[in-house]
């Protein structure tokens, strides 16, 4: 039984003692029972580092609300004494940072990085080995990590466990998906008290009885195992690390750092969405010239395979033919779509392709696909191909071909690549989320960057903000996407699904949901008696382009389903790169309304979505420029629309508005609304 010191009292007491903190901290050095304080720039959040009988802990308070009780820190090493106790403070440093940096693309253009930092140097009481724990406290949360400086007696080492705890103050409500399951992150979100949680993935979003919203995640996962969380009947979440196949967790060499453990705190659920703490805890871009990194929209040879209209493998139903690809390129060029995804173009898809990890070629096309000719045709139409690398988790085979594959795409002008890692275990039985695969994913990002190719990774490692350091890592899957609406045994993603994503999976980063299906009853499918289908209205299908953020957004349907559809104009118009993002309302799992201003322009776009219940909102338009008139192009559910029986019933209309107005927004069951606000002067 660990003796926990009440921490809220300590935090508040130390705040009162801030004028004499220097004297207090001077007493901390060399003590086995000591406390150090660091607060946020605005003073609202306080983190306390404490040593109690040689054991390190931390705690967090938000104003007068205790967010995290005394929570254990430390790691357990293999075949060595560990840093799990009997340590003392031998030094500490402070610094404050306030800077603003510009994203080459993103949900906002400029990000303020404003924090106070406390670095605490610890030494074994009966030895010389050292570890540093660094805290950064922002106005929207806290990040901390472990650092191992270069030192004698600690060169190569193996981490067996991380002792990090998140000791919550109550049995908060949590929204979660399970960890260590075969479908990776592809599960529906569940809601339950923290104490009921087994191993779950992060981000883990919670609501406290005090009305705060808290998300636990990690930042800068670079060369480490992915972190999971587990409560096991308590209200203390224990950090877990996804293991190597040999049972170890992390293989390291000093100097070495862990990822940041992040705790984001907001007074509204929307405040979590507009927190950029995870991004700020990553290193600045290592790509000096990012001019070649472009956001965009794409169509593709993809949805037809999920409908069983086409096949990835060769044969009479092969989807990736020269003829079909040229037709998609023509459509993209005519409608202002940037790219065309082609899946199934390369040798290796025949038979049970999920078992073909050693057979895929990433440079050799099928005979009915003229790769060189199609790439040239795309360039002539000012459209680029989105390449595709499905590995079937054959990592050795893929890495042998990485350089040749990306060099080929660079030569052909293929600007983006979608990668895939279907299957459950890589060579040597390694998991998707262990250090082995974290290293692989980073190797692919770096290789792609050398060849000026951007990435869309499916079956990925979770996003932890590395897009700041490697901005060619643009988007990824990491959740149930649109394909579940074609064939899932449970009928597909329920109407509430898209109302969870912005507050859960979306907190980690961009999500390639592959939206934009207009054939909502799947009448174009060749699958008889198929129960799965998109459980949304057409207006909601449009609103998702704003609600779910991705710098690469797909118009996922068969292109013939867009012909003659007035609603397709929304997909043509809506940007995927933003200057500003605002959350206008939202309740997790019920509804959300998000407004975004286009980068480099004057237009605003709003997306609002609901669950299976219809809703009506009154949305103040005070985010628009004062004194300026706008035309609101509104794509709304018709009065009789609903996702089950009349999903395609939509009303498209225009209305003059200004910043002083309040707009009535009605959402049908399973519905949504998409609105473009353009300055009236453009007429």
Structure, described:
With 683 residues, this protein is an alpha+beta fold. The protein has a domain at 8-280: Distorted Sandwich (Beta-galactosidase, Chain A, domain 5), CATH 2.70.98.10. It is globular and about 75 Å long. Strands 6, 7, 8, 9, 12, 13, 14, 15, 19 and 20 form a ten-stranded antiparallel sheet that branches.
Helices, strands, pairings?
Layout (H helix, E strand, L loop, with lengths): L7 H9 L4 H6 L7 E6 L5 E8 L2 E8 L2 E8 L2 E3 L9 E16 L7 E15 L5 E9 L2 E8 L7 E7 L2 E3 L5 E4 L13 E4 L10 E4 L5 E7 L7 E4 L5 E6 L8 E4 L2 E2 L2 E7 L2 H5 L3 H4 L15 E6 L1 H4 L15 H14 L3 E4 L28 H10 L3 E7 L4 H18 L3 E5 L14 H16 L3 E4 L15 E4 L7 H4 L9 H4 L37 H10 L4 E3 L13 H6 L4 E10 L3 E8 L5 E7 L4 E6 L9 E8 L12 E8 L4 E6 L4 E8 L4
Parallel strand pairs: 21-22, 21-27, 22-23, 23-24, 24-25, 25-26
Antiparallel strand pairs: 1-2, 2-3, 3-4, 5-10, 6-7, 7-8, 8-9, 9-19, 9-20, 10-18, 11-17, 12-13, 12-14, 14-15, 15-20, 16-17, 28-29, 29-30, 30-35, 31-34, 32-33, 32-35
Give me some keywords for this one.
alpha+beta; 16% helix; globular; disordered N terminus; 13 helices; 10-stranded antiparallel beta sheet; 7-stranded parallel beta sheet; 35 strands; single chain; Beta-galactosidase, Chain A, domain 5; 683 residues
